[in-house]
Amino acid sequence: MITRANIILTFLSALYVITTFSFSCLVLNIGKPGILNTQTVNSDTLQFTLSRNKTVLPVSAGTSRPLKLILDTGMPIDGILIYNPDLIDSIKLINPIEVTIPGAGKDKPSTGLMSDSMSFYAGDVEFKNKKIVVLTNDIYKGFPTDGVIGYSVFGYFTTEINYDDFTIVLHNPDNFKADSTWEAVPIEFKENNIPWINVSVAVGNEEPVLMSVYIDYASSEAVEMLISPRMKYKLPEQTTDYYLGRGLSGDIYGKKGKIAKVIIGKYELNNISGAFAPAEVRSKQKDADGIIGNDFLRRFNVIFDYANKMLYIKPNKHFNDPFE
Fold first, then answer.
1. Beta carbons within 10 angstroms of residue 258's beta carbon
2. CATH node for 183-315
3. Which of 32, 22, 33 minimizes the C-alpha distance to 221?
4. Residue 153 in contact with residue 302, Cβ under 8 Å?
5. Are 252 and 281 in contact (CB under 8 A)?
6. What DSSP character marks residue 292?
């Protein structure tokens, strides 16, 4: 039986960027970072795959086939979102309620079914008492992945992602301490559980300018600069029209162009293929200058330490790969 309820899940920058799906604000019992309430562990290791510049984690729920979920810092709910409605029957939602899910784009919001207090698995780690939301429209029909998972991982574990051996190590935040080989970059949380960092950006030949950006780990882009009246940069002289992808509320269009350099911590990356998108369509995050995506961060092994508000980075074997 499906319960009807006037509940709106607000994903303010949900975006699928060339098979990238991301969120930036869900208002509904998000909670605060802490230890996973089902168990206390020192560490657990999971395997992942890298698909089209997205980190994909295998997850199981109900009697469904293994789910391919994008690991997403912009997914702030304590649970998972599935955008393949064909999986509703096998996931076996308990007492589902109807929900409306606005997101990036200018069209009508998506619709879905949501259950509280569900369980799912990633490897041997069981996640209990979580939300599962399944879209009921076919806006993402045919996509190669099944959905997203975010805060249920990042919010409870210090999450180490290693692109040299494609493993994710889930550390207990109470027992974790990074060694001196890692570069520490402070993160902050503003109106939701999405991590923000400061980076210095030079789009052209100007001196780098300090900018406030948030991390959208599900974006397949390296860097997305937001176009707004308050932007701190000038668009490159040479750009091409660019289709960024599809959000929960429609398609996103912008520009593609080169970014001369981005400095994060003590590291500098150059000649970056960047996207430029209208802020009011791509992102509803107040005062954001831009977005750092997976094609940038995959060049580092990274540790997300939400509990201590820190991102740790260390160049990996992909650090000098050209941006394409």
1. 16
2. 2.40.70.10
3. 22
4. no
5. yes
6. E
Distance CA 299, CA 53 (A): 11
Domain ranges of the chain: 3-175, 183-315
Q: What percent of the chain has pLDDT over 90?
A: 66
Structure tokens at 141: 């029909």
Confidence at residue 299, expressed as pLDDT on a 0 to 100 scale: 97
- Judge contact between 299 and 313, C-beta under 8 A: no
Do the domains 3-175 and 183-315 sit in the same CATH topology, yes or no?
Answer: yes
Q: Domain 3-175 falls in which CATH fold?
A: Cathepsin D, subunit A; domain 1 (2.40.70)
Q: Which residue has the tokens 């210090």?
A: 158
Measured CA to CA, the distance from residue 204 to residue 259 in angstroms comes to 7
pTM of this prediction?
A: 0.86
Task: State both tokens at 18.
Answer: 């060339």
Counts of helices then strands in the chain (DSSP H, E): 4, 25
Alpha helices, DSSP H, located in the chain: 88-91, 151-154, 279-282, 294-297
